[in-house]
């Protein structure tokens, strides 16, 4: 089990428009393929104009499969075509939960972050 953290740096001032567009055109499609995120945040202090998203996967194979399905979805690709105009950088990190946190993460996922 692991969490993928994605950090997108947006053009200054683009966060509200990015969030509106994601809510209207990207969120439902993405959740349909990846499940609910573990977290979805914008930065308030520190490096600004960043979106931080976390997704849970049981394995790297599951991640590969779900991300391929998402990438093959025409609705997602149409969303990305416009959303990428706001993005200046992306960083992806794979995080492994500490042994004492695994149970908490699983309970969190079961409560609201439905996962197949």
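Sequence proposed for the structure above (116 residues):
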């Amino acid at each position: 089990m692991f969490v993928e953290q994605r950090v997108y740096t947006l053009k200054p001032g683009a966060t509200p428009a990015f969030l509106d567009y994601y809510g209207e055109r990207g969120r439902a499609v993405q959740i349909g393929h990846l499940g609910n995120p573990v977290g979805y945040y914008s930065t308030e202090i520190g490096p600004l104009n960043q979106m931080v998203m976390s997704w849970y996967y049981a394995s790297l194979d599951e991640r590969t499969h779900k991300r391929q399905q998402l990438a093959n979805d025409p609705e997602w690709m149409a969303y990305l075509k416009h959303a990428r105009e706001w993005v200046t950088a992306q960083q992806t990190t794979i995080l492994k939960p500490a042994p004492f946190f695994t149970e908490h993460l699983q309970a969190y996922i079961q409560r609201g972050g439905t996962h197949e």
